[in-house]
Amino acid sequence: GSEKVWLVHKDGFTLATVVKTEDGSLPEGKVKIKLEHDGTLLDVDEDDIEKANPPSYDRSEDLASLLYLNESSVMHCLRQRYGGNLIHTYAGTNMVVINPLSTPSMYSEKVMHMFKGCRRDDSAPHIYSVAQSAYRNLLTTRQDQSIVLLGKSGSGKTTNCQHLLQYLVSIAGSTGKIFSAEKWQAVYTILEAFGNSSTSMNTNASHFSHVVSLDF
């Protein structure tokens, strides 16, 4: 079939098809494409196009599994998944989480137990699968585990930290209820009162670093 590509431009990327031409009919470094949405024919620089994946990869659970790994294809996959309320996507050993700006039903004790004891390879992308993977590695290797959350202000780092803690406390349990998700939430409410403020990007931005340690 015809080769599908992304035309990269200042407003993002647009799906197009490469049009075959006679040798020498275009200047060196140029390629003719046909835009998918309106059929416009354009002669563009080879550097301005990136290979597009077949439609079967539109909602890939792992970005590392994409046939063609480039910025446009990654963004397209994330956008397609987000449109289907799939906000978690593996990226090799990492995970990308897009802030849904709401509290979806995918976070609950019932959902937690769906991930309990599962291997990462058998789990759908979810913040709970990250917690389960760390907990499983802790038990099998008897070595400390770390989960690092990175992102801009308002991307959901604090919220996902809460989800991780809730999972670990719920699944691992706590002797004599010394520690619980409710107790952590109470402590964090105090920290939040002193360390959070409103910014242009986040109405409740954390202005302090979180280093949370759980001893098992």
From TrEMBL:
Any one GO biological process: phosphatidylinositol 3-kinase/protein kinase B signal transduction
Entry keywords, A to Z: Actin-binding, ATP-binding, Motor protein, Myosin, Nucleotide-binding
Keyword Transmembrane: no
Cellular component GO terms held in the UniProt record: myosin complex; nucleoplasm; perinuclear region of cytoplasm
Protein's name according to its UniProt entry: Myosin 18A
Domain Myosin motor: 58-216
Family membership: Belongs to the TRAFAC class myosin-kinesin ATPase superfamily. Myosin family.
Species of provenance: Hippoglossus hippoglossus (Atlantic halibut)
One Gene Ontology MF term: cytoskeletal motor activity
Positions of ATP binding: 151-158
InterPro entries for this protein: Kinesin_motor_dom_sf, Myosin-XVI, Myosin_head_motor_dom-like, P-loop_NTPase, SH3_Myo18a
